[in-house]
Amino acid sequence: MDKNITLRFRKNGTFRILMISDLQETVNYDPRALRGLEAMISKTRPDLVVFGGDNADGRHLKTEAELSRYLEIFSRPMEEKKIPWMHVFGNHDYDIDVPAKKQMKMYAACPHCLSKTSPAGVPGVSNYVVPVLSSKSDLPAYAIFAFDTMYKLNSPKAGVPVEDILLEGNEPWTRKWDTLTFDQIAWYRRESKKLEKAAGGVVRAMAVMHVPPYEFQRVIDNPEKCRLEGFADQKLQCSMFNSGVFSAMLERGDVEIIAAGHLHRDNFAGEYAGILCTLDGCAGFSVKNFDERRGGRLFVINEKGGRKTEFISAAALLEEKE
Ligand SMILES: [Fe+2]
User: Fold this and answer.
1) Is-contact 81 67, C-beta < 8 A?
2) Class assignment of domain 7-321?
3) Which of 29, 90, 156, 259 suits a disulfide with 25, CB 3.0-4.6 Å?
4) Residue 234: phi, psi to the nearest 5?
5) Residues contacting residue 72 through CB under 8 Å, at least 6 positions apart
């Protein structure tokens, strides 16, 4: 699937990414969700919009026809403005009665959607990497890795029922989420090395995944040291097993941002071990939350180094408009 869409740093050396996670609406959506998405795009003027999973609420949106209608509605703000966009799947996308591979084809059919099906042998469907080229050459200067955090912990993986591996210290809300697999991490390492070879040096990167990695809890627990900004009121909802993806990223030295969603009431940014860890779990208006915490996140990447991030409140933008 080559759409002839190339992402590239602007002449001024910046690249703007708008992260939208947990839109989690249905075809009977709250109209503020669509207006909020439009307002966030107008406000942030992104070069790329990234959907961080739970893009639709699969507990209520079930059929292919509904998903098709839904994608038509919520892709319009990017498609009309010809803004490239991409997505990862979240657990609620797996609740839809349409196989993820089929869903991926429906997303990829949108003219400006850059999402791709994972290569053969890599578990999950939304694992792919999108390069951003330099403003001055056709070499990759940045990359966005999409990871599929899939669904619930597949306990027969270890041959042991989940109940039997719950020990003191496993929070009840961590037990059901799956963990990234070794093959996904091996895929990331391969792609990371390929990029390095192509560019003649390590290519800085951002990773996007729905369920945050284990290490995000360290950010929540150490707000001062990690210079946490935003709301981190909940215990992390991640897998009870540490996948090792964070240490693989440290070892490669390329990923400088991990952007996740999944926790509806929280939105924060903090830095741990040199990686900017961000979580924004509520871009929509239908799931329960405080209105002021609904929104997305802007990242401004500087080609010469450095990145800035800012929470974008959808509710505040809608109020401004009234
Ligand atoms: Fe989720």
Assistant:
1) no
2) alpha beta
3) 29
4) -105, 160
5) none
Taking Cα atoms as reference points, which of 251, 1, 243 lies closest to residue 119?
Answer: 1
Q: Give the position of tokens 């990695």.
A: 213
pLDDT digits (tens, 9 = 90+) for 37-68: 999 999 999 999 999 999 999 999 999 999 99
Which tens digits make up the pLDDT trace of 112-171? Answer: 999 999 999 999 999 999 999 999 999 999 999 999 999 988 655 666 777 777 777 777
**How confident is the model over 229-257, as pLDDT tens digits?**
999 988 888 988 899 999 999 999 999 99
Distance 210 CA to ligand 1 centre (A): 7
CA 54 to centroid of ligand 1, rounded, Å:
5
Domain boundaries, the chain: 7-321
Map 106-175 to HEC letters.
Answer: HHHCCCCECCCCCCCCCCCCCCEEEEEECCCCCCEEEEEEEECCCCECCHHHCCCCHHHHCCCCCCCCCC
Query: What is the Å distance from ligand 1's center to 33 Cα?
Result: 17
Considering the entire predicted model, what is its pTM? Answer: 0.96
Report how far ligand 1's centroid is from the alpha carbon of 202 (Å). 32
Distance from residue 57's CA to the centre of ligand 1 (Å): 9
pLDDT at site 162 = 72
CA 295 / ligand 1 centre spacing (Å): 15
Distance (angstroms) between ligand 1 centre and the Cα of 133 equals 31
